[in-house]
Amino acid sequence: MPRPTSVSHRRRDQKAAVTTTVVATLLALAACSTNPSTSGRVDPSADTGTQDDVLAEGGEILVWAWEPTLAQVVKDFEAEYPNVDIELANVGTGNDHYVALQNAISAGSGVPDIAQVEYHALTQFTIADSLADLVPYGAGDLGRTFSPGTWDAVTCGTDAVHALPMDSGPMALFYNQRVFDDAGVPVPTTWEEFATAAEAIHAYDPDTYITADNGISTFTTSMIWQAGGRPFTVDGTNVTIDLADEGTLRFATMWQELIDQGLVADISDWSDEWFQGLSDGSIAALVTGAWMPANLSTGAAAASGAWRVARMPQWTEGANQTAELGGSSLAVTQASQNQELAYAFLKYANIGDGVATRLDAGAFPATMRDLTDPAFLAQEPEYFGGQQINRVLSNSATHVLPGFQYLPYQVHANSIYPDTVGQAYTHATTLTDGLTAWQDDIVRYGNEQGFTVNR
After folding, report:
1. Residue percentage of the chain with pLDDT more than 90
2. Residue 264's beta-bridge partner residues?
3. What torsion do the CA atoms of 70, 126, 351, 338 make, to the nearest 10 degrees?
């Protein structure tokens, strides 16, 4: 079935050893470099010929990605450009993928030309100058091509472009209208109303919960993002971590109340029990990314016609502020000997004909052209009772709060989240104390890796 692009959205974060290479020159590197790479394959002032010439000449490209819709994109690309041979390899998802990629880069052998990289993991590779700056290939002109949140993620607010967005995960409220109607509960528009609805739904049926959450780092960081929190600030190798800022505490306080009252189901997402709850209505809502519809329609088919989509609940009545949860980019590696051809495939997959192929298979776009396409907006999926859900989801994509940053070692931070913040879901600690413990661990780790980490 179609899957979200982040493995951490499919199962509880797993503690994993993420190989990180630290070299003596680390402190001279910037987490988001503002300069085109000096070791790239193109001199931007040189006449490199047209992209058509590059495609006609052809060559071989190795792509490491787990996103399932890319398989058909590769087939179509090779059919259109028969001199190009693309090897698509799935070396693992999430942490497994990044470990393999980091190890190949460190060894200087077997590095793919193109790698799928989730937005939260990009900085891990830009800090080590492992990804090519795509500006010399023309990517600097593509800012308006993509939704603001995804473009911000691949540029880090600089002039460099480290990847092209492949898809996006603007957040929304997915809810089972039958459950809400039966319980006599209005669809919440604010987080205060969400908490009230959670209590009312559980009072109506003690076996029914407004949502499920047993401790997912990516959900937590995205909720903090929407609450206005900016816990991570990265300036080169100088990192500031504040997991007690106003936005972070706003989310933690509200969510802790739901946990304390037993109003959130302690069920692992993407488990059989989770899909059963989505099917039978015992999990009545999800606050998640726009990639969710295909997963609901296949994993909770019995609930067809019951589910709807609404704007993400707001912290201030009448506001319209969202965040991203999930989504991936495609990046060209610095080690690639065929960068120009690799970039041609990126354009095809993320801007060109490959986008329609992926949307037909259930992906959610990062391209403004598709987010505003009247035909896309007018789709009325039967599973959602004929609601034009893409209007809600596309609106969310254009209201993502700007300026959120991830750590340059976010993959590692996510891997240790269950041992700290995750313990709040077993009542062994609180979210605020867990966030403090998480901060202590990731501050210590960052300093050990050669960053200058402040709190």
Report:
1. 84
2. 211
3. -70
Q: φ, ψ for residue 67 (rounded to 5)?
A: -65, 120
171-324+403-454 sits in which CATH class? alpha beta
Residues 323, 140: Cα–Cα separation, whole Å: 24
pLDDT, residue 6, reads 39
Check if the beta carbon of residue 301 is closer than 8 Å to that of residue 384: no
pTM: predicted TM-score of the whole model, two decimal places: 0.87
Helix (H, G, I), strand (E, B) or coil at 278: helix
- Spatial strand order in the sheet of 285-289: 285-289, 171-176, 307-310
Residues contacting 418, CB < 8 A, separation 6+: 12, 13, 14, 15, 215, 217
Alpha helix stretches (DSSP H) within 205-269: 217-226, 246-260
Q: Which residues pair with 176 in a beta bridge?
A: 307
- Model pLDDT, residue 29: 41
7-168+327-388: CATH, from 3.40.190.10, 3.30.43.10, 2.60.120.200, 3.40.50.11270: 3.40.190.10
Average model confidence (pLDDT) across the chain: 90
Nearest to 219 by CA among 285, 288, 318: 288
The pLDDT-based confidence of 114 (bands split at 50, 70, 90) is: very high
Which SS3 state, helix, strand or coil, does residue 265 take?
Answer: strand
pLDDT in tens, 238-284: 999 999 999 999 999 999 999 999 999 999 999 999 999 999 999 99
Contact 239, 408 (CB under 8 A): yes
Return phi, psi of residue 307, to 5°.
Answer: -85, 150
